Amino acid sequence: MGALWSEESRFQKWLDVEVAVCEVHAEMGTIPNEALEQIKSRAKFSVERINEIEKTTNHDVIAFTTNLAENIGEAARFVHYGLTSSDVVDTANALLLRDACDLLQAKVEVLMGVLQRRAFEFKDVPQIGRTHGIHAEPTSFGLTFALWYDEMRRNRKRLKRARKAVSVGKISGAVGAFALLDPVVEEKVCERLGLRYAAVSTQIIQRDTYAEFLCALAIIASSLDKFALNIRHWQRTEVGEAQERFTVGQKGSSAMPHKRNPIISERICGMARVVRANSLVGLDNVALWHERDISHSSAERVVLPDSSIALDYMLHKATSLIDGLVVHPDRMLQNLQATRGLVFSGQLLLALTQKGVSRETAYEWVQRNAMRVWDENENFEELLRNDQEINSHLSAEEIGEVFQLGTYLRNVDKIFERVFGDSE
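Structure (tokenized):
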């Protein structure tokens, strides 16, 4: 991804656009075929030379075409024929952004494969579910990865839509009115480059398309942030349910040799903030003066490559992190039992209502025992067996059935079928 956004790559995309325009002009008889051959055989650029020229011109596209002219010779008068700078830059940006989407798409696919494997690996491993950070009800650890897989599937669709949005070129001149060009030139150039052409443009491709790209990247980054945040919680000392792989020779702290910190997860969370912030720049760039100003241009030189490179890195790290995640099912079971049976309160509530007790009354009976567990460190099941109102409706055997994990995991297979049975 870094190579894609290098100066060498960017100027090469500019050259691809310039040559494609010359080829179309030659087909249409606008420029001589001999000139086209000279252009194609001699068109070369030097990043160093372009940067040197730009010190004088203070205009990167002019510096670029000047360097081309130095190498091409007389036929260079047909280069950039009828074009404005944004015809080249924005059409080249479409090529860069399209290729960036393809690279990101490939890494999304790899991550999804890892999530699917780990989902099935831990499908039958019970874990306490948490709401508000507090123990709620038992669930399947594998469901977490199934959930993330499904989210990344939506992100894959978002990225596909963003790719389509940005794969648009324009060769329509200074204000988009084709004053010096036939619209057919734009159509043929875009076809050669594998792009759609803008139905209408100003001097530039409209920036809502770039905003869509940056927002799609921001959403994907936020998903990775979410995954990493969960892992950071699992790795907390008092939780200890899963942790980042700690390699031989790795150090956690300069002062505390015992430390194993979730550094990759924290890095992903931090970088997500950058990608989200960059999406705001994309949204701000939608509104420009009239047919164009250049308030967007300088910012795009930062946010387009930075967001692409950052997310590419985040996807790589997230895949490695989840693939190598060290899981402790025994600790999950300990945590599930830590509240001495309280997490089965919902199942008890339903059991009482099935016996004819009103929900309000059943809730009161269950809660008063639950509060004693919290406040007096009692065992929930033992309290229930000694509660005359409860055991007048539920036998000892029926109370015991309330505390079975199987009830909570009985539909996991169905959920997996819904998630992984859909190939879209």
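DSSP finds 18 helices and six strands in the chain. The chain has a mean pLDDT of 95.
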